[in-house]
Amino acid sequence: MSLDETLQSLGWRPFFQSQVDPESDWTLARVLSVHRGRIEIAYPGGRNTVTLSGKSAKLDITVGDWVLVDAELPQVKRRLQRSGLFQRKAAGTAGEVQLIAANVDNLFIVTSANRDFNVARLERYLAIAHDAAAFPVIVITKADTVDSVDEFVNAASRLSPGLLVEALDARNPLDVEVLRPWCETGQTVALLGSSGVGKSTLINTLAGTVLSTKAAREDDQRGRHTTTSRSMHRLPQGGWLIDTPGMRELQLVDVGDALDEVFTDIAKLAGQCRFADCTHESEPGCALQAAIAAGDFDPDRLRRYRKLLSEDRRNTETIAERRARDKLFGKMYKSILADKRRENGGKR
Questions:
Q1: In the beta sheet, which residues pair with residue 108?
Q2: Which one of 166, 196, 230, 329 has the fewest beta carbons within 10 angstroms of its own beta carbon?
Q3: Which DSSP helix (H) or strand (E) runs through 325?
């Protein structure tokens, strides 16, 4: 990275400026990568590695975050509020949330022209993109391996009005040129997609880096995980690209409003139902069921919407319940301490 890097070239926005005291001596920095107990940061003038300990370890820092750093120590003093955040329910836990990336402008949703292509998975990624206020572009890789990509492009394009879909060979620089407008100076791009779809290959072509890639298993065309930690890569056009590990168990958390943006066709029809609380199952006057009966609406899309909505509600309620339990436990603990103090005559 050039030592002439500016805050603007790192992705600085007026949104962040309003959170900073102009008289502060702390250094503004962008988080380039997150590892266990440490982060790598970039700022005008260079880079540094900062250990996370004490209070800084509790800041829930993720790649793409902006932080204020005491450069002499060095130590993170504060994390700035995010303009957007990608997150998911962590696999195998009850109510825990895993941060994916913060302050992302554009999202490349990567799939491939083979059996990995999955409409339901793409709808999940689109909901996450809308929730994080990132502009989504669906990228279909391995276009060179099929006679025609029309089937894949058409299926993806139908998911949302005006959705941009690009089919390409991720190894071919000329093909990848169509993605350059979202990689300009100051822009931050993230990639999401399951293992083996060619994310690392796409990064190699976009950024001119050489990341480790592993061939997809021939029996099911599903790849092995290559990227093990999230990181930001400098792009030749001046932008930044965030790579994320392949995620098989991507679950939604608190994205109810974003689902309405992804499934605008359902929201539009639902507004025509006789009852405002219509569940679109067997109620009289249901516009969705009428459209399905007339052959004008895909019942599988309604089924997928219900599944995602149910999952989001379940995961979001789990988090709320956990917080309520924590709050109740805290009150109970304070009450016990107060009783003990009274028993000891007010002594601590």
A1: 137, 191
A2: 329
A3: helix 299-343
Report which residue type is found at 196: G
- Residue 237, CB half-sphere, CA atoms under 13 Å: how many? 19
Buried b (16+ CB within 10 A) or exposed e, 41-65: bbbbeeeeebebeeebeeeebbbbb
The backbone torsions φ and ψ at residue 112, rounded to the nearest 5 degrees and listed phi first, read: -140, 160
- What span, in angstroms and rounded, lies between the C-alpha atoms of 195 and 200? 10
Give burial (CB, 10 Å; 0-12/13-18/19+) of 334.
exposed
The phi, psi pair for 35, rounded to 5°, reads -125, 180
Annotated domain spans of the chain: 14-79, 85-243
Query: What does the alpha-carbon distance between residue 242 and residue 64 come to, in Å, rounded to a whole number?
Result: 8
pLDDT for residue 180 is more than 60? yes
pTM of this structure: 0.78
Q: Average per-residue pLDDT in the chain?
A: 84
Q: What is the CATH number of domain 85-243?
A: 3.40.50.300
- Banded model confidence at residue 152, pLDDT cuts 50, 70, 90: very high
Model confidence pLDDT, tens digit, residues 188-217: 999 888 888 888 899 889 987 655 444 444
Pairwise CA distance, residues 268 & 144, whole Å: 37
> Residue 246 in contact with residue 196, Cβ under 8 Å?
yes
Residues 6+ apart with CB under 8 A from 187: 11, 105, 106, 238, 239, 240
Q: Kindly state the average pLDDT of the residues 82-110.
A: 83
238, two tokens: 């001046």
- Give the H or E element holding residue 79: strand 75-79
The predicted structure's pLDDT at residue 95: 60
Q: In terms of pLDDT, which residue wins out, 320 or 38?
A: 38
Q: Which amino acid is at 78?
A: R
Q: Is the peptide bond prior to 173 cis by the omega test (within 30 degrees of 0)?
A: no
For the stretch 312-316, contacts whose Cβ atoms lie closer than 8 Å and that sit 24 or more positions apart, written own/partner, are: 312/127, 312/252, 312/253, 312/254, 312/255, 312/256, 312/259, 313/256, 315/89, 315/95, 315/251, 315/252, 315/253, 315/254, 316/253, 316/254, 316/256
Q: Which two tokens stand for residue 257?
A: 């409003």
**Residue found under tokens 């028993």:** 343
Instruction: Find the helix or strand (DSSP H, E) in which 203 lies.
Output: helix 199-207
Q: Which of 304, 312, 239 is nearest to 266 (CA)?
A: 304
